[in-house]
Amino acid sequence: MLDIQKLQCSRENKEFGREIHYFREITSTNTHAKELARKGAAHGTVVIADSQTAGRGRMGKSFYSPAGSGMYLSIILRNAFAPKDMLAVTACAAAAVHSALEQFGITAQIKWVNDLFLGGRKICGILTEGGFSGEAMEFLILGIGLNIRKNPDVPAELESILTDLESETGLQIPADALLEAMLDTLEEAFAGLSERRFLSVYMKHSCTIGHRVLLVERHEEALAVGYTRDAGLIVRHDDGTEEVIRTGQARVMD
Ligand code: BTN
After folding, report:
1. Which of 163, 193, 175, 178 is nearest to 93 (CA)?
2. SS3 string of 122-137?
């Protein structure tokens, strides 16, 4: 259980988390954050829940969000982003969550574009969604789902895909400390977004670069060789040509 009053007080002079909306259960923190943003909620407002009944992932997938096992949060960003920035925003957030975990002695791997892995399985997913007014993007919702401890009822089909911080490290990290660390590293990472400061961490801890990947929607394999400054994935095809991938999934094969 989070002590939201205390957290908000400690973040009075910060950008992220000055206002926090906390729920035991919600459909999706991204959906609620979007509603708040449409009503004018400030940049940096956080929506956090112990569980989600309709958590969303990238590519229209659902995100498993049971009670007692994870941290599910969304942050309203009102910087002047354009749709083309969304990949960089997602990658920047992944690098920031990585840095927060480092503060607790945990070194995760970052899988393009939005996942953090430990021991070969996923511990965190990130979903960035735009709020549009006509053609213009009014705000962004940055959604982060982090698996903290094992859920005994995890469906069999997710067992081999998902893991959590406690199972992989034996650490029981207090939720308040983890949230505070994440809000700090996210705030810092976003302050350096235009200079792409996140790229060094993002590249150093990549478990995608140097590996063959399956471009899932294209049913095609290629070698992942690098990232562009906007976090596009540079792949080399078997005929030697290179291409930048900005949409879809790249599944690491080896
Ligand atoms: C993915 O793995 O494809 C992204 C998952 C993002 C999940 C988070 S949990 C908090 C926020 N609310 C949602 O409905 N989704 C994001």
Report:
1. 193
2. EEEEEEEEEEEECCEE
pLDDT 10s digit of each residue in the chain, 254 long? 788 889 988 999 999 999 999 999 999 999 999 999 999 999 999 999 999 999 999 999 999 999 999 999 999 999 988 888 999 999 999 999 999 999 999 999 999 999 999 999 999 999 999 999 998 899 999 999 999 999 989 999 999 999 999 999 999 999 999 999 999 999 999 999 999 999 999 999 999 999 999 999 999 999 999 999 999 999 999 999 999 999 999 999 98
Q: What are the pocket residues of ligand 1 if the criterion is a CB atom closer than 6 Å to any ligand atom?
A: 28-30, 52, 55-58, 61, 63, 65, 72-74, 114, 125-127, 143-145
pTM across the whole model = 0.97
Q: How far apart are CA 121 and CA 215, in angstroms?
A: 19
β-strand partners of 56 = 62
- Atom number of ligand 1 nearest to Cα 49: 10
Length of the chain equals 254
If phi > 0 it is left, if psi is from -120 to 50 it is alpha, else beta; for residue 170 that is: left
Calpha distance 204→42 (Å, rounded): 33
Number of the ligand 1 atom closest to the C-alpha atom of 61:
3
Give the atom of ligand 1 at the shortest distance from the alpha carbon of 124. 2
d(CA 74, CA 77): 10
Q: Which amino acid is at 206?
A: S
Cα(62) to centroid(ligand 1), Å: 8
